[in-house]
Design goal:
InterPro entries: YolD. It holds the Pfam family YolD. With 96 residues, this protein is α+β, with helices and mostly antiparallel strands. The protein contains 2 helices and 5 strands; from the N terminus they run H-H-E-E-E-E-E. The protein has a 5-stranded antiparallel beta sheet, covered by helices on one side. The N and C termini lie far apart (53 Å).
C-alpha cells in the first residue's frame, strides 16, 4: 500500500523522465534559423519549425505570415490555422 504523497511523487517522476532540457542555440544556428524564417516570410515557403514547449520539442509545418520583434512573436499558418509562436521557443527551422 502506498501513501497518496508517494503516488504523486511517482507520477511526477514518470512525467519528468520524458522531459528534455531546452537545447542551447549558438549564434551560427540562430543565423540559419533566421534565414529560413525570413525566406518563408518573403516567399510564403513552407518550413518545419522545431519549438520547445512544455519540456518537449514540437514540430510545426507552417508558412510564416508575420514577425513581431517587439513582442518576440511569430505568426504563421499551419494546417489552415493561424498559430502564434514565441521566438524564444524556436530551437530549429528548415525549409521543406
Amino acid at each position: 500500500m502506498m501513501l497518496p504523497e508517494h503516488i504523486e511523487k511517482l507520477i511526477e517522476h514518470q512525467k519528468s523522465k520524458n522531459d528534455i532540457p531546452k537545447p542551447i542555440i549558438d549564434e551560427q544556428e540562430w543565423n540559419r534559423i533566421n534565414e529560413v524564417i525570413t525566406t518563408s516570410l518573403e516567399h510564403y515557403t513552407p518550413i518545419n519549425l522545431s519549438v520547445y514547449k512544455d519540456n518537449k520539442i514540437h514540430l510545426y509545418t507552417c508558412c510564416v505570415n508575420k514577425i513581431d520583434l517587439f513582442n518576440k512573436k511569430l505568426d504563421a499558418t499551419a494546417n489552415n490555422r493561424k498559430i502564434s509562436i514565441s521566438i524564444n521557443d524556436i530551437v530549429g527551422a528548415e525549409i521543406i
